[in-house]
Amino acid sequence: MKxxxxxxxxxxxxxxxxxxxxxxxxxxxxxxxxDGTKSVDxxxxxxxxxKLVQQGEVDKGIVMCGxxxxxxxxxxxxxxxxxxxxxxxxxxxLTREHNDANMLAVGQRTTGIEVVKDIVNTFLNTPFSxxxxxxxxxxxxxxxxxxxxxxx
Length: 152
Ligand code: RB5
Known about the structure:
The chain is α/β, with parallel strands linked by helices. The protein has helices spanning 12-24, 42-54, 69-76, 89-97, 113-125, 132-151; strands spanning 2-7, 28-31, 60-65, 83-85, 103-107. The chain has a 5-stranded parallel beta sheet, sandwiched between helices. The chain is globular. Bound molecules: D-ribose. Residues 8, 10, 42, 65-67, 69-70 line the site of D-ribose. The site of D-ribose (RB5) has 8 residues, from helix 3.
């Protein structure tokens, strides 16, 4: 499985730790930056990773910032992206089972690194439930995207 990963300056350490874990687990990882602690803008990196997911160049995307909030909002602006911000493994499981999330967001200032690693593994190993009610709701999200596009 191929994974895209991105962060802002507030989550570089976690990104490096998660990349090392994923490579060790046999995943192919595409790192979309950023690389240092110099202040950057999270939308640039969230967008870059989301486009890889949207274009099918990676199977899933993982984004990180101080809280995970700004970078998840940015990723969710890209058509076809369902990015779930998770603080624990229950959220990670449910965002796959119920929302068929194709991206995960976590925060370096809000969640411990061991919990983040468990969240990432849960997210990557949990399939979508395929239950009719969840499929219908995801279709509604897609309809909203299409409707909003036609308004512009
Ligand atoms: C950057 O200072 C910080 O705002 C960012 O990492 C994130 O927490 C935003 O949601």
